[in-house]
Specification:
By secondary structure, the chain is α/β, with parallel strands linked by helices. The protein is 38% helix and 18% strand. The protein has one domain: Rossmann fold (3-Layer(aba) Sandwich), CATH 3.40.50.1820. Helix 4 links the parallel strand 5 and strand 6. The radius of gyration is 17 Å and the shape is globular.
């Protein structure tokens, strides 16, 4: 995979303090309608949104792209205290950022864990986006978070022991490229919360479920889209790992938001 050319739009980095005192980072590109994008597990705003040009595409389409680094990721704090990872802490952090920025009219999106976080925010009624996007997430990944959490806990707890070429080995390889903190991330895994079909059926916002045609890591994206009252399934090339490197991802987000 090769990076796209460097973005022309200026990129800025900022910090704010979460409700529990954690110092969290967010990055911005572009001016216009606010769009908050939340990255996936082991990743960062840079890897999911900036590196492969998706933020640039959205900024050029007239969006102020706001991209937090989740706690335990990127330039945000990675505390080791288990108390720093209560249930739904990522949803709480994202809501705190929206309030910090004073946003009242905005769009919202997330990849994988970020997509789950977006849905948790809407389920809990703490946000009211005009439109939402859930990328790389399926129905099973919402209803049974324990399965994926157990897999990643195994990856992080036994670094260096996974058979070469295995799914765990590939996850560890990605983790190592991001310079992640295993202790902090294991703590974060305990913050995941299962959702229920009735909760998903009650989400009132237009929501695109965008997923790679080879991506089944979190179950069926089509089933998730069918369950959402205003869900729309959109496919893009790739699997869970490489879809973020493909230009179709940024274009799919742009097309949904501008439709």
């Amino acid at each position: 995979m090769t990076d796209l050319p460097l973005v022309a739009a200026p990129l800025t980095t900022h910090f704010f303090t979460a409700e529990d005192g954690a110092r969290l980072a967010w990055h911005e590109m572009g001016v216009g309608r606010p769009l908050v994008l939340i990255h996936g597990l082991f990743s960062s705003a840079h890897i999911n949104w900036i590196k492969y040009g998706h933020a640039r595409v959205l900024a050029e389409a007239g969006f102020r792209v706001i991209m937090p680094d989740l706690r335990a990721h990127g330039e945000s704090a990675a505390p080791h205290d288990p108390a720093a990872y209560p249930l739904d802490v990522l949803a709480d952090d994202a809501v705190a950022l929206i309030r910090h920025l004073g946003l009242t009219d905005y769009d919202l999106g997330g990849y994988s864990l970020g997509g789950r976080t977006v849905l948790r925010m809407m389920i809990r009624g703490t946000v009211s986006p005009r439109r939402a996007m859930v990328l790389g997430m399926g129905l099973a990944g919402m209803l049974d978070t324990g399965h994926r959490a157990a897999f990643f806990r195994e990856v992080l707890s036994h670094l260096g022991t996974h058979p070469q070429g295995s799914e765990a080995w590939r996850a560890e390889a990605f983790f190592k490229t991001t310079g992640g903190d295993a202790t902090a991330l294991i703590g974060l895994l305990g913050s995941f919360v299962d959702s229920h079909e009735a909760e998903l059926k009650a989400i009132p916002y237009p929501t695109a479920v965008i997923c790679g045609t080879e991506d089944q890591d979190n179950g069926s994206a089509e089933a998730l889209a069918r369950l959402l009252p205003q869900g729309r399934y959109m496919s893009m090339p790739g699997n869970h790992m490489n879809a973020v490197a493909k230009p179709e991802m940024g274009r799919a987000m742009r097309d949904f938001l501008l439709a």
